[in-house]
Amino acid sequence: MDPKPIITFLLLISATVIAAQEYVRPPPRKALHFPWSRKPSSHPQQVHISLAGDKHMRVTWITYDKSAPSIVEYGTSSGKYSSVAQGESTSYSYLLYRSGKIHHTVIGPLEHGTVYFYQCGGQDPEFQFKTPPAQFPITFAVAGDMGQTGWTKSTLDHIEQCKYDLHLLPGDLSYADYMQSRWDTFGELVQPLASARPWMVTQGNHEKENIPLLKDGFASYNSRWKMPYEESGSSSNLYYSFEVAGVHAIMLGSYTDYDEYSDQYRWLKADLSKVDRQKTPWLVALFHVPWYNSNKAHQGEGDSMMAAMEPLLYAASVDIVLAGHVHAYERTKRVNSGKSDTCGAVHITIGDGGNREGLAHKYINPSPEWSVFREASFGHGELKIVNSTHAFWTWHRNDDDEPVRSDQVWITSLVSSGCVAEKRHELRSILVAP
């Protein structure tokens, strides 16, 4: 019997099975349409919260009544507010656009792991949030490059199903791109989630919005999304740090000076010198432009920041680095100086939150030895720090149900592996260097 027909048949079956297992990406989704709705000028809008130092939360909202007070009433029972805090307000102009009154009010001290109910400016509706836990485990939802498309809505719907404590966003929020009203629609879009869990964000290129000789960059972003930079000793809202439940998180700026003579670099050295790895065994860094990227999009854009800051982050034994910018997902091995290093950081690019520019489909082949998993799909990540030694990272593709993990890995802390102790002298040397 001639074996050729049998071999051909088997090859056809094999090809069919492989094709059935391949992921088929659905078509793009359009930008969301936001119908105009009239609300009272004192009605709190675009409500979101962020951590503001130990046991404190910053509540931010906008009103179009310039006389509306910047007060937040809050308590642990619905409708019964045992405390009240007075905050500050700001506003900005951008060519013909005039923002509403932007309120920032810090409340606290608050108890860990507790549900609080609150009202902004003495007005309905009532909102509620849950404070992060005091100790492990703690879970972060992670999604960057959000935008305002159907994919954004899908990402937010998935995150809403996740049991998480904070949202980390490594840049590119609204994709307003000079159209200031789109900052307002973005604020309304994310309010259901951002008013219930802290959103800790850093800037991306779409936040710059500078007009030479007329308007400095980041005016909209800095006015609307105030982060705890003053609480962490920073002089700029574009970089800061915070601590929560055994994690020290560093939020860096890819679009402000970062060389060794810059304010950001000096602040980073000072911030790292204060980190107690016995108290906060996990060290995580976020910024917008990835340093390790095997996608053809944005190749080399993070090289100069990497040259300046990677030696410092490596000496400090940063465990995980999260970035955006590239509209795709990628995870690396522990890496440093362009190659695998068991004492380096795991780098994760997660700029796939739902932006209108679409996905970055083209990758460099063959993939670098440090690249473990990469895929051009929209989605979000979940980082669960289980204890002082282990964390569980998962990436969830939007086209699957949220419980489906498209990529997952257990990560062992550098404290438990001995790398922190091994590099103690190196860190001390780099921190005291002029």
Radius of gyration: 23 Å
CATH fold node name of the largest domain:
Purple Acid Phosphatase, chain A, domain 2
Shape: globular
Secondary-structure arrangement, i.e. CATH architecture of the largest domain: 4-Layer Sandwich
Helix content: 10-25%
The helix/strand class is: alpha+beta
Account of the 3D structure:
21% of the residues lie in helices and 29% in strands. It has nine helices and 24 strands. The strands form five sheets. Strands 14, 15, 16, 17, 18, 19, 20 and 21 form an eight-stranded mixed sheet that branches. The protein is globular, with a radius of gyration of 23 Å. The chain starts with a helix and ends with a helix.
How would you summarize this macromolecular structure in one to three sentences?
With 434 residues, the chain is α+β, with helices and mostly antiparallel strands.
Q: Helix and strand layout, with pairings?
A:
Blueprint: H1 4-21, E1 45-51, E2 57-63, E3 71-75, E4 83-86, E5 88-90, E6 93-94, E7 97-98, E8 101-107, E9 115-120, E10 123-130, E11 138-142, H2 150-161, E12 166-170, H3 181-194, E13 199-202, H4 219-224, E14 240-244, E15 247-251, H5 263-273, E16 282-286, H6 303-315, E17 320-323, E18 329-336, E19 339-340, E20 345-350, E21 371-375, E22 379-385, E23 390-397, E24 407-412, H7 414-417, H8 419-422, H9 424-432
Short descriptors:
434 residues; alpha+beta; Immunoglobulin-like; Purple Acid Phosphatase, chain A, domain 2; 2 domains; eight-stranded mixed sheet; six-stranded mixed sheet; 9 helices; globular; disordered N terminus
